[in-house]
Amino acid sequence: QGMTIDLKSSKDQTVRIPTQAFLEQLCLQCAAEAVAHGVEKISWRFSFPTAFSPKDLQEFRRIWDQITDACAQVTGVISSDAFPSEVTESIASARFFAEHVKAPFATGTVCIDIGGGTSDISIWQANKLCWQTSIRFAGRDIFLNPLYKNPDFLRTFQVDHPSLQSLKNTRGNRSAFYAQADALISRQGQGWLDNLKAYASTGEVEGFVQLIAVGLSGLYYYVGSLLQYLHKTSGYKPQMPNVYVAGNGAKMFHWLAAGKYDSRSPINDLFKAVLLKASGFKVDPRMFAVKVSPEPKAEAAFGLVSERKTLDENQGAKADEVLAGEGFMESGNPCDWSKTLTAKRLTNGLDAPQQLARFEDFVQTFDAYAQSRNAVVSPIAHDDVLINQIYQHLSQTLADFRGVDEKAIHVEPLFISELKKLLEIKTDEWTSNNP
Fold this sequence. Notes:
5-stranded mixed sheet, two-stranded parallel ribbon, globular, 48% helix, 13 strands, single chain, alpha/beta
């Protein structure tokens, strides 16, 4: 029996301890069900994001060892393996698209599993893994943080007063807010989407959709950067692959299509534009597709229990390398955006570049789409003041890494750090315009 556990790293023991207790209770329930059906052995399997630092992964493995030992002692059902089996979330979800959806991994495929805390990316060609990475930029950054800043927005969708008040009562505690919001979305989220057409033209909803469009298209721009990097360094053929989106965060795409997204939705013109611009590939946009999983959130679980070996999963990026996505300065020398970052490089000291070339290119590409006839979002309002805010944020982020213990560093793409700050600024503007 396999299951996917979504445990994102936290130094806060008030989060880690109850989470471990919940996981243990869940696994004990599974083991009890197994005993009731005459099962004597269980193969425990878990997935994890590559964004985990070595300390995170070590702690995660320790938790799993404790859980499986406890299950064996209480239920008598032993583990069939010496240790629980593990695989990265990016590979687990890719197995789903390869074996269940029959995606064309031979010619090239990109899989993006968007969860609450991380987006796990894997890039394939000739059925081989070319790159995998995990980015701490996902549903919470794109969808939940705007609601955290402006929970009253949900009145638009007739969210009842007790539910809304419960959300407001968690202000100041993001973990509690995320838990309350996730539960509310699980109960009512589909109803919001079903009625989205009735509210899509209101200023509040248009602003909220704009934030989602900026976040997701920025994620796609980074994927395009990965493709260009692989083409230049690893011989990845300049064929734009289909992009498949998995995870609970895949549901955000429906907000960009008045409640019902598919590969023909107009917003795909934006996604294709940023992918092509960032990759530099000269490909007809009609030659590739952007698709959302038919079973969001089930993909990694499918991949954990899949026994077929249709993919060569033994390649990919080094575990400690992350594509910067934006230029930087090292020892006074300019470094291109296509350089990789490591914890050692960050702790030794880096500085922001003279110009945020990739960030500005993304904004310009977004705006070029937004000014087209069929655009469904508005341009990103930006000026020198906004660019300077992003620049100062990146400078401070890099300065904060100096001298930090390498093992404690979560290496993040510089472009993603810029994108997070952009969303934060635009969320504040949206909140102030819709009090």
